[in-house]
Every structure is written in C-alpha cells, then in structure tokens.
Amino acid sequence: MDQVLVILSLSFLIAFHELGHLLMALLTGIPIERFSMGFGPKLISRRFRGIEFRISMIPIGGYVLPRMDDIEDLYSTPKLKRILFSLGGPAFNILLTWVLLVVISAMSGGVTVGSILIDPIVLTFTMCAGILLSFGMLVKDPSLISGMVGMAAQGGEFVSGSFQRLMVLTAYLSANLAIFNLLPIPALDGGKVLFTILEKISIKIRKIQVPVTVTSFILLIGLMIFSTIMDILKLTNITL
Hints:
Blueprint: H1 2-28, E1 32-48, E2 51-66, H2 71-75, H3 79-109, H4 113-140, H5 148-159, H6 163-182, H7 189-201, H8 206-235
Antiparallel strand pairs: 1-2
C-alpha cells in the first residue's frame, strides 16, 4: 500500500509540474494545444476551452504542447515568454516543496513565524542544494541511479504507514523533480532556457536545437530503462 501511495505521489507531482507550465503559458499569452500526462498514443482525451487534456499510453512524465503550425511559430514567441513558460514547471514544484514543509513544520513545532516562514524556506533551499550536489555523485557512480520502481520500493519503506513521512517524501521528490528539470540538458526545461538564451548570442543555434533535443530525449528514455532494470536487479538480488 505504501508503494502505491509513493507512485500516486509521483504522478501528482508530474501533473503539478505540467500545471505550472500550463498556468505560465496562460499568464504570458502562449496558446496551448495539449496538456498530456504521459507520452505516446492517447488513452483518454477531453477538450476544455480549446485545450486537449489527455492521458497517454506511456506513463512516464508528461508535457504541455503550445499551439503552433511549425517551429517558426515557437521562435516568433518573445524569448522572455519562452523562458517563463519553461520555468513554470520547476517553479511550481519548488513552491509545492515549500508549502509541504510549511505544513510539516507547523505540525511539528506549532504555528510560529519561524515554523511557517523561516524554517521551511531554509529547508527548501538546503534540500535543493543537496539534491543538486547528489547529481554529481550519480555521474561518478551510475549504479546509484534509481527509477520509478526503486523510488516506489525505497519510498514505501520510508513512509511505513506514516502520513507525515509521506509528506516529507513528497516534498523531497518535488524538489528533486524541480532541480532535475533545471539541469541544462536540451530535452529538459533547463536546456530549453539555455537554448533560448544562446539565441541572443547567435541565431544559428536554432539549426541544432531540434536534433540535439531529440537525441537528448532518446538518451533520457534509455537512462530510464537502465535505471528500471537496475532497480529490478537490486530488488531481486541479481548481480550482473
């Protein structure tokens, strides 16, 4: 049961991340065609105010697709709007991390200025900094990488039937999702921001953006598959 709660928590965090992109698009006037949970062929689809909301077949991640006829429509969108759109998802995850830590802190230490304002802000910053440093360790030792299977198993053990522990884990995973997406990898939000900034230096950067992004996306899918296989091997005590 705890493992199921962790998976539901991850799904919620991904949806909340994409909601951040959607709301930022609406605020900046970027027209949106689709809001999807997952990738690939659609399973369920509904339209609301001109936007298609769908659940797709491959339950890994999600995306918000701007309405455009071709790539030039994207490039015609002001750079600041594109940057804000890309940062909307990570910003929402960091905001959620802070809100959860406020609730946890208030539950533990009562409602004071320190417990609902200072402590959660400091802890949010510390948590994000620690996650960023941990990514460097993953580069040195890829065996430490864990996918959804591993996170569900380890997260379930950590939660152990405690609602407060589930909130702590959700806050940590939310911060993790934010920092990961801010990495300057082309397929991620940080990479999109980087490419947008590089356009200021040379407009020619646009020529390589699509192929580099597609290649990066394929590599990330491969990493997810690798991490899932490693998780299963660890859980079944099989060594290579």
